[in-house]
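Ticket #513: bound-state structure for pyridoxal-5'-phosphate.
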Amino acid sequence: MGLSISPQCSILLFNYAIQTTSRRSAIMIEKLIFDLSRDGRKGYSLSGNDIPELSVEAVLPDKFLRTKPADLPEVPESEVVRHFIRLSNMNYHVDKNMYPLGSCTMKYNPKVNDAACDLAGFSELHPLQPEETVQGALQMMYELSGMLAEIAGMAAVTLQPAAGAHGELTGILLIKKYHEARGSKRSKLLVVDSAHGTNPASAAIAGYEIISVSSNADGRTDLGDLKAKLDGEVAALMLTNPNTIGLFEKDILTIAQMVHENGSLLYMDGANMNALLGITRPGDMGFDVVHYNLHKSFSAPHGGGGPGSGPVGVCEKLIPYMPVPVIDRIETPEGSSYRLNTNHPESIGRMMNFYGNFAVLIRAYTYIRMLGGAGLRRVSENAIINANYLLARLDSRYDLPYPKPVLHEFCLSGDRQKKAHGVKTLDIAKRLLDYGYHAPTIYFPLIVCEALMIEPTETETRETLDLFAEALLCIADEAENSPELILSAPVNTPVKRLDEAQASRQLNICCQG
Ligand SMILES: *Cc1c(COP(=O)(O)O)cnc(C)c1O
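RESOLUTION: The complex was predicted; output attached.
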């Protein structure tokens, strides 16, 4: 029996190919949910009422009543599910494939974290419930703070900040308060030039003048430049360790001593904690403040809009300024209980409504409890091995601006491809989409030209790393032999090359114009 495809089938296949490859058709075919609506095609049915019916007019004041019905789409359940599944297929996510976005730690998030969030004892709480009815939630937060403090070697941790950048702002406000309490008004914050852009931004929001400290030829903080810039106006130095090119600041103890002798504090951007877990601790290196990114190192989904969490750990002398409420544990003969304490007169105040992004805290708590101390150490060891393995597969075909080895991430440069073949790093990133991968972080950090910054994370297998390496090696070949393929990429994605500048200058989120 020979296989033949009927004319109708080939048309269907052809349409599907168009649907998944052509920008115009994809947008035309996937309509807005409002356009799928047909009057009366409701996707729900309600059971009968067993209490007397009242009209809304009888219970709501006139000013709250609608003058015309809400414009809600009427779509059956099957169409709702298919619509959103189709949209999710057009998207890229960490449950689909490796997500090598340097500095962002896009690791796979174990589903057990979500199962813990779904427990009714957590998911059905209201933030205004009386303390005695939420003892379990308070205990979880109290214990999570303690575990994070131990992991980073800090004296206390607040869970309030909603993201890494918000943690930075919190940490800087703590530093500011510390100096003010000593009657000193220092006006400058030092930030190393390889830092994440949020560092200078947070410092500026807190009212500081930002002074940039250079990196040396090794990719690490230039001690001579640091020394020259440390004066009586410096409130703190913000440092990322390992830094954003994945290199450990080997002189960290000297740096801490220099900063402290100047009466300044040392802030650690701890978003790169994925390289340190169970191996070394910021507190032991002399850092006074550190923020964590629970949505990176401690495994909560992020990117694409999920909420984050950026707890802040502090050394002993900053404890009085911590945000309120602080969770206290009270020991009585009957056992422990927990309470929210706002009686901290020197506190910088609240950094967040209620208690932070609670569901992200549950995920981090679950993740840490599942792995334990030894498991956390293996996370970092594997993250480091994966990064060095991938780097070893790639560094003969792309420029490596700073010498190996690295920690959990590395930075390549597309300078060779640009100079010899007119293929920029942006083009290489776009071509990777055709091979079925999310692009790495590009053009960051700013100290590397044509930067391609790659963080594989510990959750990828050797086979996945090999396939990703093959894709980048194929692209290096294409750059030499057929650069036009790269310059016109992507061709296999639902939308082709977008004008990113126009998208941010002319924000138009309403397709119906
Ligand atoms: C992600 C990141 C931040 C900012 O964290 P957000 O949660 O995105 O605000 C800061 N520093 C470094 C090094 C990071 O990787």
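RESOLUTION NOTES: The chain has two domains: 114-371, 375-493.
TICKET STATUS: resolved
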